[in-house]
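Dear Dr. V.,

Thank you for agreeing to look over these. As mentioned in my earlier message, I'm a first-year student in the group and I'm still getting used to reading structure tokens, so any feedback on how I've presented them would be very welcome. I ran two proteins. I've put each sequence directly above its structure. The first is here:
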Amino acid sequence: MEQMFKVVAEVEHYKNFVPYCKQSNVTSRTHDHLRANLVVGFPPLVESYTSSVKLTPPNLVKSVCTEGKLFNHLLTIW
């Protein structure tokens, strides 16, 4: 569980292994929350958005899209 939490919580590395993730930049981080700007897609469809991510080690990562044009609602829970 701890290993999976660590992989999912390190949003800044998504661009290295998540399919279609072009950029992943963490703009702020505390022990239980982070904000990240992400760019996903494949040409010609590319979308950038901001995620607000709640971190509850070692068993919860909850991400909500807060700024984006493509998604009306995007919620990811690990």
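The second protein is here, in the same arrangement:
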Amino acid sequence: DSTFPRAFPGWVRLHLRDGRTLEARVPDSRGSLTCPLPAEAIADKFRDNASRALPPARVDELERLVGGLDTLPDVRAIVALCRG
């Protein structure tokens, strides 16, 4: 009865030492069409992930360039910043 791939449901079930079981379900994950992330959350996620591989100055520049992608003449600058 999964709704995947129309939705991305999630759930967690915890079995506690005292014998209780706690469970929570969400019908659609954050970031989906029905539960979109705000722009700042997307930027935060980008910065967090990019900072694992790139120095802060490159992360900042990538964020700036991608933020203006619609006016960027080509993507070579973005590709260059992504290389290690």
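From my reading of the second output: Residues 39 and 45 are 10 Å apart (CA to CA). The mean pLDDT is 91. Does that match how you would interpret it?

Kind regards,
E.
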